[in-house]
Amino acid sequence: MSDKKKNTSKNDLHLENDHRITTKRSLSTQLSTELNKTKSGSTSKRQKSLLICVVCDDGAHGYNFDAISCESCKAFFRRNALQLQKLKCRRNDGHCDVRFNIKKRCKKCRLEKCIETGLDQ
Amino acid sequence: MSDKKKNTSKNDLHLENDHRITTKRSLSTQLSTELNKTKSGSTSKRQKSLLICVVCDDGAHGYNFDAISCESCKAFFRRNALQLQKLKCRRNDGHCDVRFNIKKRCKKCRLEKCIETGLDQ
DNA sequence: CAACCAGGTCACGAGGTCAC
DNA sequence: GTGACCTCGTGACCTGGTTG
């Protein structure tokens, strides 16, 4: 079977080793979990941006393309996933900073970071 | 239902190394699985997934629409059973792989497989 | 009354849209 | 081109009727 399903347990989740949770309902679980710890469990509605985008460190609210990523990296990856060959890094020879607070992010380096960090179409 | 479901586990999440759970609710599942192993080894409640879905080879827990099928194929068939005419296979001319571990399953081919394997509304 | 299954529910995430 | 927002299909879980 897949790995899917099942579940049913209400126990801990320790994802160690690179576990990835790619699942639907599990996320909230995760989040709520954390919320519960700190707050008292309110888990508002949307705003569960307690997650950090693996690509740019911005806030994320779940998985996109199999990795915890923000809306902008999701959209970026969606548009550019197949363009790697066509892109060129014109500044730092492939070592540009692509974090969210950087003004003009190098497309080539951003895409490479996406791929490295596991985004997968 | 708010967040429906459950899972609810309120415990930690440690995402470290590379595990990947590629599923939806899998998280907890996985965990539980492991828990069960170590703990009492039982398959808790549902978990009678010793059966294999005739459509996608995923774990199944019984008959749905007259065939042994998983939750997802059951839901898929429920929604699409009458849509065969409207669907088109855009990739492999009607020969797409529709097993559970395939990322984007072709609806047309999945529905045809459902019908071929005997799902019947 | 326990097990089974059809159908309902709804969080999640992929893709679309559009103001900028 | 970018990124915030929206829409909708998917699938895990729930509910309720039926059957033994």
Main attributes of the structure:
homodimer; two-stranded antiparallel ribbon; two-stranded antiparallel sheet; DNA-binding; 121 residues; mainly alpha; 3 helices; Erythroid Transcription Factor GATA-1, Chain A; disordered N terminus; 28% helix
Overall description:
- Chains A, B: Residues 1-45 are annotated as: Disordered.
- Chains A, B: GO terms for molecular function: nuclear receptor activity; RNA polymerase II cis-regulatory region sequence-specific DNA binding; zinc ion binding.
- Chains A, B: It holds the Pfam family zf-C4.
- Chains A, B: It comes from Adineta steineri.
- Chains A, B: Residues 50-121 form the Nuclear receptor domain.
- The structure is a homodimer of 121-residue chains.
- Chain A has 121 residues and is mostly helical.
- Chain A has a single domain (25-116), classed as Erythroid Transcription Factor GATA-1, subunit A (Erythroid Transcription Factor GATA-1, Chain A), CATH 3.30.50.10.
- In chain A, 28% of the residues lie in helices and 7% in strands.
- Chain A has 3 helices and 4 strands, in the order αββββαα.
- In chain A, the strands form 2 sheets. A two-stranded antiparallel sheet of chain A has the order 1-2.
- The first copy, chain A, is globular, with a radius of gyration of 17 Å.
- The two termini of chain A are 22 Å apart.
- The interface between A and B is large, with 36 and 46 residues.
- The structure holds a DNA duplex (20 and 20 nucleotides).
